[in-house]
Amino acid sequence: MKRAETDVVIAGAARTPIGKHGGYYNYLSAEDLGVIAVREALARSAIDMSKVKIDQVIAGMIYIDSRCQQIYLPRNVAMRVADQIGDEGNLGCAPGKTTLRICGTGFQVVADAYDLITAKDANKMNCIISFGTESMSQTNLINHGRRKPDSVWDFDGAPTTDYLLEGFNHYLFDTLMPRTADKYGKEIGITRDECDEFACLSHERSRKAQLKQWNRFSPPKEKGYLRGSFEVDTTDQRGRNISYWRDEGTRYDVDVKGLAGLRPLLGGDGLVTPGNASQISDGAASVVLLDRAFADRHKIPYIARIKGYNFATVDPEIMGQGPVPAIKGLLEKLNLTLGDIDLFEVNEAFAPQYLAVEKELGLPRDKTNVNGGAIAVGHNIAATGLRMTIDLVYELRRRGQRTGIASACIGGGQGGAICVEVVD
To answer: Helix/strand/coil (H, E, C) string of 115-132?
Structure first.
């Protein structure tokens, strides 16, 4: 294959195990999680930090608040990791920015780096660290008071609202995210039984990937073959030692009968239930991205390259359809067909949403979300796209396969997709 004039390659990639709301990482901030993921991604790379300049650190996070100083997220993460590895003069001096595209943020941190590395002008960069992080457990209540005209320090009284749940309702179109999935799923002919059966499959695949063996009566002890994740061994904000190696949301007692007994989230004949929707989660993911020619010159090994990315729009009232035009557009850009893709990752925001995308695109079930998805793993929103991309790369390598696409629907009526290719 003829090499592109500028290739963007992945030299290191890692993501934390995903924690449930109020679970593993209840007392770790999004910044703490970002530090853990970035440090591991760097450790998995073979970059000599004394010889390779980190040109930029790109962070992705949705639920940013000033209380935890998250407006300084990329710089804080860079400086904390630099302090831990003794690299204040390089990583500690790297400029940083935060980017956001709701559920597509994990793709956007890669897209931003891709554009900078492939730039043809003075803005071109050679080495960028991208990461996405989210602590949905620590998302705050927000007071909507405005500053008084005659004082910076005084505010008018206002109601307090839930910062997390605010994002689940698109006010301009008066539609909740689960409602968009119900509507889209019904339009495509998805049934409630299909949704519950798929939710069970997601947990089953996730268990198999993470564990060598399991049963519902004893805790899991032996790691499976999932390689994107790594063991987190640290101390939380309360001084508690924590050590986790598997995704907390994956369950061992899920069956169709139990899921069928759950009421629809929005009542009536709705398809979405607490059992077939993605989980509110915490976690982070990171990649070290390089210009391929630069990596070759410095003899830095890499595991995959970014072939391209694409974002598209759909009707916000069926926002779950987003992966359909995103994947179609990406395949067209790259002059590929569905048959050219070895594995797919499509975010399981809601079972009816995923199943409708699968049906519209004609995605092969045996090649899509082979290690489970957000229904079992969790959806730590800003990191999800990067989590899927990383898991996809490692699974392709494990299978000896080459090309994969990761995609997600995005609130507001968008879809994002990214294509990766394993390199020898």
So the answer is: HHHCCCCCCCCCEEEEEE
Phi, psi of 2 (to 5 degrees): -70, 130
Classify the C-alpha dihedral 31-62-279-16 as positive or negative: negative
What is the number of alpha carbons within 13 Å of residue 100 lying toward its C-beta? 11
103, 127, 195, 200: the active-site residue: 103
Q: Is 127 designated active site?
A: no
Walk along the chain (424 residues) and give the pLDDT tens digit of each residue: 444 557 999 999 999 999 999 999 999 999 999 999 999 999 999 999 889 999 999 999 999 876 678 899 999 999 999 999 999 889 999 999 999 999 999 999 999 999 999 999 888 999 999 999 999 998 887 777 778 887 777 778 777 888 787 888 888 988 889 999 999 999 999 999 999 999 999 999 999 999 876 665 566 667 888 988 999 999 988 999 999 999 999 998 899 999 999 999 999 999 999 999 999 999 999 999 999 999 999 999 999 999 999 999 999 999 999 999 999 999 999 999 999 999 999 999 999 999 999 999 999 999 999 999 999 999 999 999 999 999 999 999 999 999 999 999 999 999 999 999 999 8
Q: Which residues have CB under 8 Å from 108's CB, separation 6+?
A: 60, 99, 100, 101, 385, 416
Q: What share of the chain is helix, strand, coil (3-state, %, to 5)?
A: 40, 25, 40
Check 68, 195, 200, 409 and give the catalytic one: 409
Tokens matching residue 332: 């067209």
Token output for 69: 């100083």
> Is 103 one of the annotated active-site residues of the chain?
yes
Domains in the chain: ranges and CATH: 8-139+280-422 (3.40.47.10)
DSSP 32-93: HHHHHHHHHHHHHS---TTTS---EEEEE-SS--TTTTGGGHHHHHHHHHHHHHT-TTTGGG
